[in-house]
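input
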Amino acid sequence: MGAVLGLGLSHFGGFFFPDAEMGARITDAMERGRLPAHLRDPSGWPAAMREEWGNDRGTSFAARHRAAYFNGLHEVRAALDAFNPDAVIIFGDDQYECFREDLVPAYCVFVMKEFVAKPYARARGIGGGSLNIWNDPQDTAFRYRGADDVARRLVNGLLGRGFDPAYAYKMPHQDHLGHAFTNTLLYLDHERRGFDMPIVPFAINAYGSALIREKGGLAGASAGEASPDDPPGPNPRRLFDMGAAIADILA
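output
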């Protein structure tokens, strides 16, 4: 019987930029008037948030926040190494990267022998032109092994159990993974010890009806008018049942 290990982590891109820029999303939202009137000034924020923001726009707290997150990553990576998996299935949300107006699947399995990650290709407005904490060049690209055999088995198994996953043999719209997967891999190897475990990226439409309108939250993109008929994301109950089916297939 196969064994399954479940792990979770944040793919927030702010962790790999300097402390002074970790709060860039908040600053941007304030400056562009994207917040309700009562939240446009820190005086209207919850006390804990005001404390983290401090008098330096979150710079001091950013260092503590990153340290706490990276300490957690030590535990996650240690558990993954000890488990020594045949494949790492990564569930991540595609945010108007590989999937756009021409095709919006509820979920999609990527079936490929190799994946390219470009962590700084889309920094989502955080960090601007600043160098990252690893001093990687802006055009840095990483390559990861794919577990295409596991991916095929997974898709076949789900179809046989009444689920209807989309699947893709190449990246649509770009030649590299979306940032949810890329950041996850970057963080799992944040100490740069190497990451040679084969992966299966499993994309979920977490934005639902806001995906096209918000363009995945891209910095600078102007939100369009919402259509009352824009479909939502996949039903949580269905995803829960699919998770159980995936565990059964892998076992």
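quick obs: Strands lie at 88-93, 107-110, 114-117, 142-145, 166-168, 199-204.
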